[in-house]
Amino acid sequence: MVAPSSTAAPEAATKEDVWIHSSCEMCYSGCGILVHRVNGVVVKIEGDPECPHNLGKQCAKGQASIMTLYDPHRVTTPLKRTNPAKGIGVDPKWEAISWEEAFDILCQKLEKVRGEDPHKLLLSSWDMAYTKITTPWQRAFGLHEPRMTVTATRCGAGLHSVTFIINGTFNNDVDLDYCNYCILFGSGMGFLTGLNPMAMARKMAEARARGMKLVVIDPRCGVAAAKADEWIPIRPGTDGLLALAMLNVLLNEQEVYDREFMKKHTNGCYLVAPDGAYLRDRETGKPMMWDRAAGAARTFDAAGEDCALEGDFPIDGQAYRPAFQLLREHIKQYTPEQAAPITTVPAETIRRIAREFGAAAKIGSKIVIDGQELPYRPAAAHYLKGIVPRTQATWQQLSILLLNLAVGSLDSPGSYGGLNLLGPAGSWEPRESPDGLVMQTVKINPTDPYTPKQATPSEGVAPALTRGMDAGSLEFYAFAEPEKYQVQVKPEVALICRTNWLASKENRETTVQGLLNIPFIACFCTMLDETAEFADLVLPDTVSLERHVLFPNSRQLQHIAPVTDYFYWGVVQPVVKPAGEARSWCEVLMEVADRMGFLRELNEEVNRTIADPACRLEPEKRYSLSEVLDKMARAEFGPEYGLEWFQEHGYKRVKRNVAERYGIGSLKPRVPIYYEHFLRGKRDVEQLMKERQIDWWDTSDFVALPHWKPSPSYTRSQSTEYNLFCIPYTDAITFKTLTPENPWLNEIAERHFRLLKVEINADAAAKRGIKDGDLVWVESVAGKVKGTARVTECLHPEAVAIAGIFGGWAKGKPIARGKGLHHNSLLPSDVDRVDVLSGAIDDCIEVKVYKAEQ
User: Fold this and answer.
1) Stretch 295-313: mean pLDDT, rounded?
2) What is the biggest distance separating any 2 CA atoms in the chain, rounded to whole angstroms?
3) So what's the pLDDT on residue 283?
4) pLDDT (0 to 100) of residue 12
5) Which of 554, 471, 577, 503 is nearest to 741 (CA)?
6) Which of 183-187, 200-204, 656-660, 736-740 is least confident?
7) DSSP-derived 3-state class of residue 332
8) Which architecture does CATH list for 712-851?
9) Residue 154: what pLDDT?
């Protein structure tokens, strides 16, 4: 596909030639871009050098967004389903209709559920940038607890639940400016994947050039491992065990740990009873520590600096021990010799990496930056997608994070840390739980990670069974089996906006059943994707170059990397008019509120989010989206910083001071190394299970100390014909379901040596008679997919790897259709594969691979 012919107009015919500030939305990073428009046509997109996030750099996805804009297969008019039958491959027999008819249909359905019970409405979107409007919209519609179902069970359900309780923030990274030893567990940080790809790629290159050692622990030798000083191939799903063995070496064999950090910044001194509960003050209920100077137990906020990390303390006839001592004793069982045959990493390698990590941390050292003395811990372990979507997602992450905490590597120069612990000029700081533990600021997320969610009529029991930020995969299972999950108010209308359930979720059959259980579905989309084929109404959405979004770079400050040295706020703005009759889905919802008569309620709910009274909406006035965002911008930064200012200048930047970049000096709440709240959670969940007669949920992971146990995939691969592990991976040109249909990115994928193929280890291939280029079946207990074999030495002998979310089948995606493999089709919907603490699903599946007919 080529750009429109008008872009090649003679120079004499040029009437307009402008460059426009905006932000990229081809992934969640939100890099700053400059869009070149000539005579009303976008002809080029470049990175914006004024954006601290990417400093003018841009990946292939960002440059290719021009092709998404001018895709001739885009949906550009409302469509109504005329075939009542639904199913994969069933023709909806779309009929083009006017927006007026579309509004009539949509409002009629919404008025019915709003009159009966507003909770019969389900809003599903990955478009987090619009929560500024969609959350007030849901409240105005009548939902007491607005929720936006997303497709984030691969990372969000597992990742953020852990970073909230360890970092007090939404995401994590490594301070590569000062790090000297970095371990990546299943992470591509610094290699154009992850949370801040452009900024971290630059920092990783600089760190490696100055001599930082990079160790990559991953079943697959991807880009990060290929560039590392050392690649350690590991059996999939065993990273947590490896981390615990390394931790054992540090704490028990080498006795290398940061005692002062443990005392001051963790709950390692909290006294624990034999039943696992904290010793608590009888009056305040606060956890207590043994104050060595006083020779007595004191509450965590009243004890002196010298509190006991080890010892036995008889109090009121019962023996108590500090949490740190319990951790040390507990992990003695995880020896390198015990871990080696399971992880396939030799015991001597485990010990060596642990020793190198501990030595590189320089425990006790200091560094002065801008006149401020800080702890200097230039060693960090980082993890991401290869770790989070696992049956034991929570414990795998916590086991790795304990490596950092053991050496004091947290929010200091060279360390592992959260992204935005402190805000500019004291605008926010982490909260403290009643037990003295770190909690994220309300500015980042109001969720309390220590307070369990409750079962509700519209969500059923799923939220109350986990301790994550949401119910994860269980939320989707509840759509398919509402009786099992005790959903009393079932969704009757679903608004699915900029997300594709069928491609993103595990197990096609379960997702299909969930869709079939919803009587009316309206999809806002730019293409007729797999989920849209189940819709009753399709509404043409805008792409990022056609719509307004305020502060996309911040994502409520969840993704801004401290290594940029700035806080910054940008804008997405329309650089061309929407194609055909496309409209921003958020604008459509605002018009729905007006047509249905709850505009006043919407404006009032929006006003609750606007602190400056001078910028609030008039109750009865109908505003455009851009007018609302203008008021929000002025309320945030002052009357001179309206939406027009951001459109002209691109970015509002605020320089970070040292404390805002390295929060360890200001960190007052403690970070847990002992997780007593999981024990309390177990009691709550088991009581709920008893009351609701639930016998299908396993609470064995509700313990207070990290542990590892074999996943279902590991167990089954040892005893069945499904004796390989199939793992998905992310590449720099892929992002969820946004990229396979893009012509430029598709061309790269087709030319790439492995992206659309099945990677299999050379020895494993030889045993099965498979040669490079053969057609093969990859089969699991849930399904099978066919593709071309890529035989390689750069893969663990027991692993098979499939890239991204390819293998689409929707007729409305002619470029992507049938190319590559759809890994999620191999995943069963099985509660045994769900992390009970976070709701994350295990996407490592046991498979067999065999030749297919040519």
Assistant:
1) 96
2) 94
3) 96
4) 55
5) 503
6) 736-740
7) helix
8) Beta Barrel (2.40)
9) 57
pLDDT grade for 656, boundaries at 50, 70 and 90: very high
Q: Tokens 């997405």 map to which residue? A: 572
Please tell me the distance from the alpha carbon of residue 472 to that of residue 475, in angstroms, as a whole number: 6
Name the one residue in this structure whose structure tokens are 């007018």: 627
The sign one gets for the Cα dihedral 494, 495, 499, 500 is positive
Cα 173 to the center of its chain, rounded Å:
13
Using 50, 70 and 90 to split pLDDT, how confident is the model at 150?
Answer: low
Query: Which tokens go with 427?
Result: 């605008």
Q: Rounded to whole angstroms, how far apart are CA atoms 840 and 588? A: 32
State the DSSP code for 71. -
Q: Which residues are within 8 A (CB) of 135 and not within 5 positions of it... i.e. 6 or more apart?
A: 146, 148, 605
User: CA 402, 387, 749, 3 torsion: positive or negative?
Assistant: negative
Whether the Cβ atoms of residue 58 and residue 33 lie closer than 8 Å to each other? yes
Gap between the Cα atoms of 4 and 41, Å rounded: 8
- Between the alpha carbon of residue 205 and those of residues 446, 559, 661, the distances in Å are 36, 20, 20
Helix-helix angle 585-596:625-637, to 10 degrees: 110
718 CB contacts (<8 Å, ≥6 apart)? none
Distances (CA, A) of 702 to 402, 678, 707: 18, 5, 10
According to CATH, the superfamily of the domain at 157-426+671-676 is Dimethylsulfoxide Reductase, domain 2 (3.40.228.10)
- Which residue type is seen at 83? N
Q: What whole-number distance in Å separates Cα of residue 652 and Cα of residue 723?
A: 53
Tell me if the domain spanning 79-151+450-541 has CATH number 3.30.1020.10: no
Phi first, then psi, for residue 674 (nearest 5°) are -130, 135
3-state secondary structure of 46: strand
Q: Where are the domains of the chain?
A: 79-151+450-541, 157-426+671-676, 712-851
Determine the average pLDDT of the residues in 775-797: 97
Rounded distance between C-alpha atoms, residue 800 and residue 729, angstroms: 11
Indicate the helix (H) or strand (E) that contains 182.
strand 181-185
- CA-nearest of 849, 669, 648 to 765 is 849
**pLDDT tens-digit readout, 192-251:** 988 789 999 999 999 999 999 999 999 999 999 999 999 999 999 999 999 999 999 999
- Specify the pLDDT at position 177: 97
833, pLDDT greater than 70: yes
Q: How far is CA 53 from the centre of its chain?
A: 19
Asked if 659 contacts 667 with a C-beta cutoff of 8 angstroms, the reply is no
Task: Select from 488, 506, 545, 525 the least CA-distant residue to 76.
Answer: 525
